[in-house]
Specification:
Elements: E1 2-4, E2 7-9, H1 26-35, H2 37-80, E3 175-177, E4 184-186, H3 201-213, H4 218-229, H5 235-248, H6 250-261, E5 265-275, E6 278-286, E7 291-296, H7 301-307, E8 316-319, E9 331-334, H8 336-349, H9 353-370, H10 378-398, H11 417-427, H12 429-432, H13 434-437, H14 446-462, H15 468-486, H16 491-499
Parallel strand pairs: 5-8, 8-9
Antiparallel strand pairs: 1-2, 3-4, 5-6, 6-7
Helix pairs in contact: 1-2, 3-5, 3-16, 5-15, 8-9, 9-10, 10-11
Length: about 500
């Protein structure tokens, strides 16, 4: 205890919040100094401790405020993200959907059918299945025309469905007794006719069409069969048809893998898939002619190697910026619509002016590339590349990378979204602008996204796969159906051919 002027001062714990050094007037300080200099020094030291403690508390509070501000900004940015300025699907927008805003230039295409579109108007046929004559028995003047022959017909055709029914074909194998040896012999049934009563290939093909093309759940398929054909089938019947299709398409899958391995340009994408209640990954690799899907527990390089295509692929792979793709020994092309959405998010959320300039430049480059039939000369590319670099420099001036304030902190300092995006545009310039250097390289990865979209629809409709084998069956059959669609094949007829053991084999694509 230290006393001065009848007051007692206790040296406090500087960390405690329940103390405060008493405030003294100027006269009191002078009196203490004259009477006891050491008491004045003690008082000053006590004030210094209090100031230092308050400074530490302010610094800690400031750090906490900055951390909370960053979290709030991050959460606000997440709330403002939608399908237009991020990679979120439109289904995640909820009821507050953003106003549609296409990245395509306004006025580029008029509404309605585009030039060259064949249209789908219902047209009359030359040979109808049924002809119904409508007699004319009386003229408007009242004369009887029942016996007057018709000089012409005004025809209208109605397209409708016959009453759905299953046709039953009974195969009767003759049984005879040989007069020479006395043995009783029986004729052989056709291939595939193995049971006293069974479903034919066309009906099994219809089940596969409903399940794997229209993505209907098995319960709804059984209900449809009962409603349409009066035939109650079990889910096992659908699974047996699926198993048969899977086995018959083994040769098809091998050919597709070979064609993708040797293709000059391919698209790749992946998406989460629930199998047995756990997260698996659906991988796709495709060209405009063929599609191959497969499912794997992993997403990265291990899964790509298991797919058997990308490890030996030497062409140009179009993908997003998933890092394991860059470990492959092939050329790369980036999905520019992904970048345009990220640029739009920075423009809307962070008000970065260079982002709109770069977005417009990418769109202008794409328009220029569409007019080129061969790779542009270097003198034609230089102005584009100079604009590209100038915009990036403007972006770096607004978002410089500053040295870390803590010299003891290891690793590179944390970068902002703008800095990360600028670094991506700078590091992967040749892959991002591959469409500019080579007009045969697509601007986007829309092909892979369209290929994978319907399998996400299947998961939303029917839920997860109960077994890994069931997911494998679905991927192989869906690969066949997607390829058939790209090859302009009739899907149902293609399924019938597959179940009969003669699946169509796609022709290899010609080099561009």
């Amino acid at each position: 205890m230290l006393g001065y002027l009848g007051k007692q001062v206790q040296y406090p714990n500087p960390i405690s919040k329940d103390w405060c050094c008493p405030l003294l007037t100027r006269d009191e300080l002078i009196a203490i100094g004259r009477k006891d200099l050491e008491s004045l020094v003690d008082y000053i030291l006590l004030l210094q401790q209090q100031v230092e403690s308050l400074r530490q508390q302010v610094d800690a509070a400031q750090q906490q405020i900055e951390t909370l501000q960053q979290k709030v900004a991050s959460l606000e940015a997440q709330l403002q993200q939608n399908s237009r300025n991020s990679n979120k699907p439109p289904s995640s927008d909820g009821f507050k959907k953003p106003a549609p805003k296409s990245l395509r230039r306004q006025g580029e295409r008029k509404p309605g059918g585009q030039p060259g579109h064949s249209g789908h108007t219902l047209k009359r046929v030359a040979s109808p299945d049924h002809i119904h004559i409508i007699p004319l028995n009386q003229c408007v003047c009242g004369k009887d025309l029942a016996q007057t022959p018709a000089i012409d017909y005004d025809c209208r055709q109605v397209f409708d469905l016959p009453e759905p029914r299953l046709e039953v074909t009974e195969h009767r194998a003759e049984i005879k007794c040989c007069s020479d040896c006395g043995q009783t012999v029986r004729a052989a049934f056709p291939s595939g006719v193995t049971a006293p009563a069974q479903y034919g290939l066309r009906f099994q093909s219809l089940l596969l069409y409903w399940r794997h093309q229209q993505l209907l759940p098995t319960e709804r398929i059984t209900q449809m069969c009962l409603d349409l054909y009066g035939q109650s089938i079990s889910e096992a019947t659908i699974f047996q048809a699926t198993e048969l299709g899977y086995q018959q398409l083994e040769s098809f899958e091998a050919v597709v893998i070979e064609q993708l391995q040797s293709s000059s340009c391919a698209h790749a994408d992946e998406s989460g898939l629930r199998v047995q209640g756990k997260l698996h990954w659906l991988h796709s690799c495709s060209t405009p002619e063929v599609t191959r899907y497969f499912v794997h527990p992993k997403r990265g390089l291990e899964a790509m190697q298991a797919g058997g295509i990308l490890p030996v692929f030497k062409g140009r792979l179009i993908h997003d910026f998933w890092k394991p793709y860059f470990l492959l020994e092939c050329e790369h092309g980036m999905c520019n619509p992904h970048l345009l959405r990220e640029l739009q998010a920075l423009s809307e959320l962070d008000q970065q002016p260079w982002t709109s300039d770069l977005s417009q430049l990418l769109l202008d480059m794409n328009e220029f590339s569409k007019t080129q039939k061969t790779a542009p000369a270097s003198q034609d590319l230089d102005p584009w590349l100079e604009r590209y670099e100038a915009i990036l420099q403007a972006g770096w001036q607004l978002n410089p990378i500053l040295p870390s304030g803590d010299p003891l902190k290891r690793g590179r300092p944390k970068h902002s979204k703008a800095q990360n995006l600028l670094g991506r545009f700078q590091t992967h310039r040749d892959s991002i602008l591959a469409f500019l250097f080579d007009p045969t390289v697509p601007f986007s990865n829309n092909l892979a996204e369209q290929d994978i979209r319907m399998l996400k629809v299947q998961q939303k409709i029917s839920g997860c796969f109960r077994t890994f084998k069931g997911a494998q069956h679905f991927c192989r059959i869906r690969s066949y159906l997607s390829t058939a669609r790209k090859q302009s094949k009739n899907i149902f007829n293609a399924i019938v051919s597959a179940l009969s053991g003669q699946p169509f084999i796609p022709s290899p694509s010609l080099p561009p």
